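Ticket #4471: structure export looks truncated?
Reporter: QA, pipeline team
Priority: medium

Steps to reproduce: submit the single chain below to the structure queue and open the exported record.
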Amino acid sequence: MIDFHIDINEQMPLSSAILYAKSIGLRAIALIVAAEYIPGTAETADRALPKDHIKTSPFPAQLMEKQEFVHKLSIYYDMQVFFGVQLQHIPPALLNETIQFYRALGISLIGVHGESISDLVENGTNFSAITAKADILYNPGLIDEKCVELAKENNVFLEISTHPKHAYTNAHIAKLAQKYGAKLVLGSCAHTLHEIHSPAMQELILKGACIENHNSYELLQKLQQNHKI
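Actual output as written to the record:
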């Protein structure tokens, strides 16, 4: 199985997350860093500036260094590991240009923190993330039918979360995804090693929400084909 949402922080070093995930039987993982809006992203996206110019500010440069390090670790541990960002607490009106900025930067996987019922997230975030074609809408919460229909059209994957904080709405998300043909992926939103779930636990959580199918392997293949790792 696959976990597309492991949050990297001081409690979750890159190498420790990879080693632990492999030890419990995960096939592939995505290591995610929280990212914010960077002033001037609209100009950067419009002009399609070279990556070397984009990386002149400290945070983007650090992201690129981490992505390169993750690639090296994936080779060392012989495991498929992706690096990505989760855009959170960004005004919906700024999400499109922010996503384009991080795409221009060359980040492997771009997700947006959705309107989870467990967090304070501005209304309209789900819609803006989907229309801007993020790769994944994390913890979409009580997402509405129009957004799910748009997710299908824009090929945006919706997260089914194994984290207790966000899993309350899994059945709702899955029901609408099945109705409109939207795609689902698994993520743990893990902040510590013990919040990363084994394939066996993932299966139990899916069963508890009456979810029979998901599209995690399809996203995996998409990233492989795009040579993003």
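Status: closed, not a bug. The export was complete when the record was re-opened. Leaving a note from the reviewer for reference: The mean pLDDT is 90.
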